[in-house]
Specification:
This protein has helices spanning 8-11, 30-35, 88-91; strands at residues 15-16, 40-44, 50-55, 64-65, 68-69, 73-80, 92-99. The protein is an alpha+beta fold. The strands form 2 sheets. Strands 1-7-6-2-3 form a 5-stranded mixed β-sheet. It is globular.
């Protein structure tokens, strides 16, 4: 009944280009608020510093940290759906996201 259930990896973008042109300026995870409102989202740099954190995803990540644009680089995300109907290992999605300009 829910196509999101089987295709979550396909719904998580692996790049954004926050250059103000209105295209791919934010990391768009529209399915989170609709289907997993208690999801926890974290983004880290290559040194393990947490750059973004949210419970739910009402405000999308825009490629900034503390209000400043981040440089072109690869960053790493952890999305924990926190869905009690899923096994713990089925709730966690990890991957890389590239910031391009």
């Amino acid at each position: 009944i829910l196509t999101v259930e089987n295709n979550i990896n396909e719904l998580i973008p692996n790049a954004i280009s926050p250059n103000g042109d209105g295209k791919n300026d934010i990391w768009n995870l529209t399915f989170i608020e609709t289907y997993y409102p208690n999801a926890e989202i974290e983004i880290y740099n290559r040194w393990g510093q947490r750059l973004f954190h949210s419970i739910g995803y009402k405000i999308s990540w825009d490629g900034t940290f503390e209000g400043a644009p981040l440089p072109v680089a690869t960053y790493y995300y952890i999305v924990n759906l926190n869905d009690p109907n899923r096994k713990d290992d089925e709730n966690i999605f990890k991957g890389a996201i590239l910031i391009m300009k």
